[in-house]
Hints:
Elements: H1 2-14, E1 20-25, E2 34-38, E3 47-48, H2 61-64, E4 71-75, H3 77-88, E5 97-101, H4 110-115, E6 121-127, E7 130-135, E8 138-139, E9 143-144, H5 151-154, E10 166-167, H6 183-189, H7 193-204, H8 212-216, H9 244-255, H10 265-269, H11 277-291, H12 321-326
Parallel strand pairs: 1-4, 4-5, 5-10
Antiparallel strand pairs: 1-2, 1-3, 6-7, 7-8, 7-9
Amino acid sequence: MQELMKQKALELLNAGKVKRVLGWKKGDLPYDATPAFFDKADQLGDMVYNGFCGSNLSKYLVEKSREDGKTLVFLKPCDTYGLNQLLSEHRLVRDKVHVVAISCKGKLDVDKLKDKGITGIAGVVEENDVLKIETLYGKADDIKREEALLEKCLSCKGKEHKIFDERLGDKQEDTEGKIDRFAEVAKLEAMSADERFEFWRSSLSLCIRCNACRNACPSCSCLKCVFDNAQSGVSAKANTTDFEENMYHVIRAYHVAGRCSDCGECSRVCPQRIPLHLLNRKIIKDLNGFYGEYQAGEFSPGDEGALPSPLVRFDLNDPEPNVITKGGRSK
């Protein structure tokens, strides 16, 4: 797939059909593949596509869509939900994006490898369902691929691309995730209020306000974030008491309510490994319960019969606030 991607990028760049290419470039370490733009053919040698290319590339199109020329972007199935959502919010110009669908068997979580005591990783080779890992200290024990998959891949929404202009390789069969994505939310709901507070207080207190979650989130598409407003008093931890991290993450979760495609990027990029996706999934679970099943980004803008987010449409059968808080039905 990596070679097919390079060939396609070279073809479209040389033909002048695109001005730039958005993919992944290799980093200093074998597991730090990073989103990158390539605007010259001789740069494509640094392009990679491997088990550590978990980034959702749709977010990085927002600013480029304002520049001249068309951008070629390689999207995994889950990434296309984010792109559709951005298009529905008019954050991108469709005609300035050329989407190439690429296959995905699930991406790897290097932290899970480190949790198994594997350090000094020098290379990872995927052979069917087994990971063969070379380290600076020699060969590590083989690991089953499934044991090292990202959480968002274990709860994968499926292998069907929701939007694309052309496809590389064979179409993969649509599959469902191996775990129930709302299982952890249900565990939190079963806790007492004090237990839930302690869970989130201990988790969010680890936050260092690096903004990685916001910067990687496709739904956080504002060019100027409210948290970057120096007069707001929320741009630095020192400005507030010990509760600032809670406010930041809870407010951010509400900002993406009804728009979050549950891509899991917030948790994937968090250096403190805070399970931020659970905040979003709690809101998604509640929206599904109150307004019916809805998946952000599932439909392309203009699709016949596609519904907007339940938070931007009104129905006479919508639950009233007192129904939600007190139970029963409104009169």
